[in-house]
Design goal:
The complex is a heterodimer of chains A (about 40) and B (about 230).
Chain A (H helix, E strand, L loop, with lengths): L8 H30 L4
Chain B lengths: L4 H31 L14 H28 L2 H33 L7 H22 L3 H28 L19 H37 L4
Helix pairs in contact in B: 1-6, 2-3, 2-5, 2-6, 3-4, 3-5, 3-6, 4-5
Classes of the chains: A mainly alpha (about 40), B mainly alpha (about 230).
């Protein structure tokens, strides 16, 4: 018997947003610090 | 002598370029996973969490394994750059761990019916996270550089010892967590479209690890050179 997949897209979206926020925010902060460090005094 | 300020800036710049490419690749992976990968019949859209959960776990375990290896090398060679690299890898590993430990429960809720269970794989992973939180706290608490590096190296090696147990925990213990789908002796157990997306995500996360650890290491190196007055 063919059954349709369960409706649980909200969990997928939550997980994708959480990773984007955690990893993305850390990456952007590091990039910002890296930029500041390499452009210090210039 | 741990190098020149110009050298550390070169490492940071290279890391920033790699991080930029990796972030663009991650956007591509998100699009691939959400728009061009089929929905699994039994788990529905929640199964797509695998494309970020498994690579985040891989990157976290890779980071912590590298901390252990580099820490062992530090205890042998006593090169302060190795200690700085271990610190950078641990920092990045903690970020990926938070990604792994948050997406896991979000996936578990619709599939297992619970956010968390004290299963061997989950518990060991949580303890690994705590070990590296302790590693970070230790680094902040010890002022003497050589002593801090030595103590941290021991914790780093002890943390790394947990990594193979985490990977093998699904074979060693009766566990609710699924067995590996990629890192196993037999062929990957996924349809080709899903495998393609998962491999792309593994690649993206690994590249992101390389980029982030390079920037973090370069920043640590520059800071150390400034504090120690070791610049060219």
């Amino acid at each position: 018997m063919q059954t349709s997949p369960p409706e649980n897209g909200q969990y997928m979206l939550a997980a994708y947003i959480v990773v984007a926020l955690i990893v993305g925010r850390y990456a952007l902060r590091l990039l910002q610090k890296g930029w500041r460090e390499t452009h210090r005094g210039s | 002598m741990i190098g020149s300020l110009a050298g550390s800036h070169r490492v940071i710049r290279n890391g920033m370029v790699i991080t930029g490419i990796a972030l663009a690749a991650m956007v591509g992976v998100y699009c691939l996973a959400l728009l061009a990968t089929p929905v699994e019949a039994h788990q529905g859209l929640a199964q797509k969490i695998v494309y970020i959960h498994a690579p985040a776990a891989w990157s976290a375990l890779l980071s912590f394994s590298i901390v252990g290896i580099v820490s062992g090398l530090y205890l042998w060679l006593r090169d302060p750059r190795l200690d700085l690299f271990a610190e950078a890898s641990a920092d990045v590993g903690l970020v990926f761990s938070v990604g792994m430990l948050t997406t896991g429960p979000i996936w578990a809720k619709p599939i297992w019916g619970t956010w968390w269970t004290w299963d061997a794989r989950l518990t060991l992973t949580l303890f690994l996270f705590f070990i590296f939180l302790g590693y970070r706290a230790l680094r902040g608490a010890v002022q003497d550089r050589a002593e801090r590096a030595r103590f941290a190296a021991v914790i780093g090696i002890l943390g790394m010892i947990l990594v193979p147990f985490i990977h093998l925990s699904v074979y060693l213990f009766r566990t609710i967590h699924p067995q590996p789908i990629l890192l196993k002796p037999s062929a990957p157990s996924l349809p080709p479209e899903m495998l393609r997306t998962l491999l792309a995500s593994f690649g993206g996360f690994t590249l992101l690890y390389v980029g982030l650890v390079s920037v973090r290491y370069g920043l640590g190196l520059a800071n150390e050179i400034r504090e120690g007055g070791d610049a060219d």
